[in-house]
Amino acid sequence: MAAEIHSRPQSSRPVLLSKVEGHQDVVSAALLIPKEDGVITASEDRTIRVWLKRDSGQYWPSIYHTMSSPCSAMAYHHDSRRIFVGQDNGAIMEFHISEDFNKMNFVKTYPAHQNRVSAITFCLTSEWVISTGHDKCISWMCTRSGSMLGRHYFTSWASCLQYDYETQHAFVGDCSGQITLLKLEQNTCSVITTLKGHEGSITSLWWDPVQRLLFSGASDHSIIMWDIGGRKGRTLLLQGHHDKVQAICYIQLTRQLVSCSADGGIAVWNMDISREEAPQWLESDSCQKCEQPFFWNIKQMWDTKTLGLRQHHCRKCGQAVCGKCSTKRSSYPIMGFEFQVRVCDSCFESIKDEDRTSLATFHEGKHNISHMSMDISRGLMVTCGSDRIVKIWDMTPVVGCSLATGFSSR
């Protein structure tokens, strides 16, 4: 049956289904157990907990396991019920969860890093556990033998990781704002390219292997979509958050991007339209509108006996302009600018009212969000953060409904 996407009323918002409380410190990661009313959490309070929903509607821990070091990252493979927990001390521990989710058995410890583990992924076909850490490296280890296969070092803390299971390419974001694309081999790796576009550290990545799109969120409050498989170098900028973007998830079927920020903002971006790429900022020694010199252009200032002006840039055309030629502000959602940005006066005149129609919806999570995970098949989302609270959301009112995934129509 063909997938069907229903229209979403603008007033729709996420529905808070449950709060899970009880952690003594920051909750580093939380994920929904597929096909179960359950959540797995990892926390700085050194605990891994499996919470199952009881008949009362409350979530109670069916597994409560204390680790030797604060938990910093987690990966769970549902078909094999294997869980990998990264710690502050650089180790990754593997456990196996019982079928009834009431018991967890220790399997192995992997000496993956010399410092805090920031992200983990597990590949069943190659039996690799791949991770990044604050020791500035990506490592991949064999889950059969527990031995290290390879490491690659960066110049900054490696903060987040995505992996293409089919091609064995890894995307690593770091604290310098750079994303490195690597091809992993059995005992070696090669750097394919580096992506530079953010002005702050990379905080989250999402890879869609179907459309071959990479999304990155950063501490500069912005999201960039990198078209890896299509037109070379094409990037789309999305600006609508007012704090660092902590987590992102792209829903390929409905062409929507869900993002969460540290101030509790939850955004749902419509990516099913033809968006415009933001222009590169042009450099000039004088305003490209009125030709007045900028303050470093000593020669023109001397020749014309005028005082130099400060340089700005129009976000729509990219031209270098002075303040007098860019007095207006406008949103321009088709280019990703959901709130008002500087535009030159001529571009302001060219923007119609309908061009200012928002292409995203914004919602309030009402807690600091440091991590988010979605169960796309059920339209559920879990958020957690420094307030030690885990929230479970019904996202179907805002992320569309699809017969293919079983979303219910609202």
Automatic annotation (TrEMBL):
One GO cellular component term noted in the UniProt record for this chain: early endosome
Presence of the UniProt keyword Electron transport in the record: no
GO biological process: positive regulation of toll-like receptor 3 signaling pathway; positive regulation of toll-like receptor 4 signaling pathway
Main location: other
Keyword Phosphoprotein appears in the UniProt entry: yes
GO terms of molecular function: zinc ion binding
UniProt domain FYVE-type: residue ranges: 281-352
Key words of the record: Endosome, Metal-binding, Phosphoprotein, Repeat, WD repeat, Zinc, Zinc-finger
Positions of WD repeats: 20-51, 195-228, 238-279
UniProt superkingdom: Eukaryota
Cellular location(s): Early endosome
Protein purpose: Positively regulates TLR3- and TLR4-mediated signaling pathways by bridging the interaction between TLR3 or TLR4 and TICAM1. Promotes TLR3/4 ligand-induced activation of transcription factors IRF3 and NF-kappa-B, as well as the production of IFN-beta and inflammatory cytokines.
Name used for this protein in its record: WD repeat and FYVE domain-containing protein 1
Annotated organism of origin: Zapornia atra (Henderson crake)
Gene behind this protein: Wdfy1
